[in-house]
UniProtKB/TrEMBL annotation:
Pfam families: DinB_2. It comes from the Bacteria. It comes from Saccharibacillus endophyticus. Residues 28-151 form the DinB-like domain. SUPFAM superfamilies: DinB/YfiT-like putative metalloenzymes. Gene3D superfamilies: dinb family like domain (1.20.120.450). InterPro entries: DinB-like, DinB/YfiT-like. This is DinB-like domain-containing protein.
Amino acid sequence: MDIKELPGKLLQQSWDSCLDQEEWFPPLEQALQGVTAKQAVWKPLDGPSNCIHETVRHLIFYKKRLLMNANGETEGFPETENNTGTFNVEDASEAGWAASKEELYRLHRELSALVEKSDVDMLGRKFSDGGTLGGGIRTLAMHDAYHIGQIVMLSKMQGVWPATRSFS
């Protein structure tokens, strides 16, 4: 392997571990597997918390922004006044929940394909907002891992998360 390929390979591994490749935490597909729309909108009674569906919409917001930045797209670019606006769920039905998961997985895979074909120069190319694909993927991988932990905790609080699971 050429040393110039290493940053992309490391980013790819981190990114894949957030969607469907188990590493030291469960990936999104496993964390969301079997969660119903009703469970996805459940919130604990005490304290402020976002539900699973809101968290998924939040992840979608930032993945969509990065993908659009990377592709140089400006029309329909996701904007919000503050971070709270990124958690908005418009359709809490089973169909809406299924559509949110599908959009999350699609965006993640599209970003994965970009990283896979990127070299060091492409990963470091500046976007109009000053960010880069490499920096965005690195940040969003950590962001995903953080929110996957929240999703797992909310699932555990509802008794949805399995008592034991394999790490295959």
